[in-house]
Amino acid sequence: MSTPEILSVAKFWPPYTAQLNETYTVHDRLHQTDPAAFALVAPRIRAIAASGEAIVTRELIAQLPALEMISVFGVGYDGVDVKAAHERGIPVTNTPDVLTDDVADMGMVLLLSIARGVPQAEQYLRAGQWPQGPYKLGRKVTGARLGIVGLGRIGQAIATRAEGFGMRIAYTTRTEKPASGYRYFPSAEALAAEVDFLMVITPGGAGTRKLINANVLKALGPKGFLINVARGSVCDEQAVIEALQNGTIAGAALDVFENEPNVPEVLRALDNVVLTPHMASGTWETRRAMADLAFGNLGAHFAGQPLLTPVPA
Ligand code: NAP
Ligand code: 8YV
Q1: Does residue 311's CB lie within 6 angstroms of at least one atom of ligand 1?
Q2: What's the CATH number of domain 5-98+285-302, 3.40.50.720, 3.50.50.60, 3.40.1160.10, 3.40.50.300?
Q3: 153 lines ligand 2 (CB under 6 A)
Q4: What does the pLDDT read at residue 177?
Q5: N- or C-end of the chain: fewer Cβ atoms within 10 A?
């Protein structure tokens, strides 16, 4: 019997690519590299393998008459037109929970790094500047006020870690989470006005686009720090750059950007930022777990078994 044909729409972690190739006939980004060849295989494509950043449009879904499911290697699926898929009865799966610890760890790494200026201080040492005097003082984290925008799986895991630093935690979400025991604010702007560090960890997509805008940054204030481990789209990047340039906020630590992998030159030139290349879930252990779950969802589908982690309608 021939193996199912699938379309891969992202450049994956190589062991996951190998896993896919062992079991399926994989057409790797053929829709982008060779549209004529893609048109020939499109009627036979039964699944899409996507990543958290990948784009799966309504138009692409419409080109695949035999499509049965979409498996996302990532918890975020804002690039997938889930509505268009569900309209055709095509389920979408993602990889929740298995990456929560790593992303929460990275949220704290970024918070601590920008507060204490770790990359800048390291650069100072490497550049041989230490003999000229000590590095400038940082911002104390223990006991500071942390505002979390999005208190879901990862947001809660960040809060748990921040409790270990004696931080005073507040949050904003669309629906209040009284069981959390943390102070709730109905908007990002109201939250920002009451905290020292604002941690953004919502999904991306239309519902959160530019949620962190110039007004939120103004409310955070000249002593406040922004940390974004969610999606670049959640922050108004131009407003963030301007706020960093003119001292509206003290600094920002960003793992995600509006136009990845391109990060504006002007942002890269700033001294009051810590910038990482969308790597919050990037450990060997978690990549393995994500690959197994994304692969497991494909396998469950083709075995006629219940999907492991379907995303809700
Ligand atoms: P989750 O459990 O679904 O949590 C999402 C949270 O965001 C919920 O508390 C939700 O609460 C809140 N939310 C949604 N829309 C909101 C809005 N408009 N305003 C305020 N809060 C809003 O998801 P998760 O597993 O924690 O993952 C969160 C996101 O992290 C992912 O979707 C992905 O974009 C990002 N992520 C990034 C990386 C990375 O490498 N940087 C890695 C993994 C995940 P309500 O629905 O009650 O509002
Ligand atoms: C991944 C992510 O880096 O899970 C997500 O939503 O953004 C990250 O964990 C990504 O999906 C892998 O390419």
Answers
A1: no
A2: 3.40.50.720
A3: no
A4: 98
A5: N
